[in-house]
């Protein structure tokens, strides 16, 4: 595999406004490489900056220093007019989901597809496929506000995947799920990664930490991201 | 985009329609105020344009110059044949025509007495037979004041006439105080001899030569004359046509457009949408996509509003019943010609109005969206609601 493939960050530094004092910098010098075809898990205590890191990787925030490279392109340095269309290649599962509650389940999945100039039939097929994958096929016409927390989160996952992204950034994707659904989501992420996609999951969910689908493990603490050795391989 | 079998609408346009429906309250508000604004702006514009067209048509029937003989007591009758003879000597003065007309006192005040179809507006005469001696064709105001279909006029003499017809209502601006009589009755009434005329109408080859020809004419007659040009003759009618209401509305146009700008910004701008726009831009919607979406929504609401507003304005100006009210509101009078609008004039007019309202509207949508989107993604991120 080419070394420049996937999603990489070099010396990424970020602090929220008002927290610029040296010790208040959230991410100090984060360097990592998330490879295509593999599921990478970023763990860390709450408040460690997992969500912030995912937003930096997805081009929703700009680093103070360092850069994010996607397939060897310095996307974090791009002006908005190049970066916004690039985001179509990113599927983001937000920790707080960011669904549009008054729209139906299917319409929420339509949103990322509308500006892409796809055929209606292709959009319909993609939406149906993703809803089936997250077991929401029966609820397509329901408004989102009638869904349970777990259903909403699965919808957010479906929305991240519906546009066939090259980079999937999932923030706590199993937070509201029972064990069966959590396992299914792990399997889904693994399957997506097998198609050559970069999958980065930020989570403190122990069910994910021990999942066999996770290929690479990273730990975020005190503003630094360190690679964690593979879990004890099953004997 | 061509769907295979599915609807062939661009997904963005379909989504725009969905959002118009989703924001039903705001859409209705936008529709209502755009429609009102178009109607308010279009009505006086259409009205004054139609007046101008009608006006020009009427002007074309008016002679370029009129020669009157004057003496110590004011104006005097002129000998018709001699006047024609002198006028013919002036190059550029065409068709000198003696006219027999004057002012007489009717039951409800002064009326204008005329004798020849050439002195009448064309729309006053559809198939009208000239009155025989003892008969009169009269304007609306004169007819209303007449008793028992008989009209008594007084000037140098007293003449009683039977009203045989009334000028049609659509010519009322020019005919309302007009009385058309046979020449013998006019002579008796105005105290003129058989060869005398009230004045001499002259046509010009080019209307720009009016002042030069007027000077030559003045020199050509052996008696003192006064020469009146078309503008002076029609001054009173012009003043009647250009009401204060029209002028006031035209003056308030900048204020109306400023209102349009502010309202559009408030209704179609980022207020209440910036979180949503933030979500969309996080999913790969570009600023251009969002602007296109907002403009498509604006067109979906604005075009019907424009159409309905223009239809209402057309009704207010051209529908006979509504037109009387419009005239009253805009000009303080219900006496109004049947307004005419030529085909190409109407199209130009509608395009003008569409431009006057539509372009600032779209510009406002465009700019507020552009400005709103810039901040939307960042401010939503920094509001921290997705962490
Ligand atoms: N929008 C924001 N504005 C200011 N500070 C923020 C914002 N979002 C997160 N933070 C701060 O950044 C730190 C890390 O947050 P986050 O990335 O959500 O951590 P994690 O996802 O690991 O729990 C926290 O201390 C939080 O207070
Ligand atoms: Mg988080």
UniProtKB/TrEMBL annotation, chain A:
UniProt keywords (A-Z) are:
ATP-binding, Nucleotide-binding
| InterPro entries named in the record | AAA+_ATPase (IPR003593), ABC_transporter-like_ATP-bd (IPR003439), ABC_transporter-like_CS (IPR017871), ABC_transpr_LolD-like (IPR015854), P-loop_NTPase (IPR027417)
Q: Which SUPFAM superfamilies match?
A: P-loop containing nucleoside triphosphate hydrolases
Domain ABC transporter as annotated: residue spans? 7-234
Q: Which Pfam families match?
A: ABC_tran
- Top-rank taxon of the source lineage equals Bacteria
Q: Cellular component terms, GO, for this chain's entry? A: plasma membrane
Spell out the molecular function terms from Gene Ontology: ATP binding; ATP hydrolysis activity; transmembrane transporter activity
Q: PANTHER family per the record?
A: ABC TRANSPORTER ABCH.1 (PTHR24220:SF86), IMPORT ATP-BINDING PROTEIN (PTHR24220)
- Give the protein's recorded name: ATP-binding cassette domain-containing protein
UniProtKB/TrEMBL annotation, chain B:
Chain ranges passing through the membrane? 29-52, 246-263, 275-293, 305-328, 348-370
- Key words of the record: Membrane, Transmembrane, Transmembrane helix
Q: Which domain of life is it from?
A: Bacteria
What name appears for this protein in its UniProt entry? Uncharacterized protein
Q: Which organism is it from?
A: Desulfatitalea alkaliphila
Organismal lineage: Bacteria, Pseudomonadati, Thermodesulfobacteriota, Desulfobacteria, Desulfobacterales
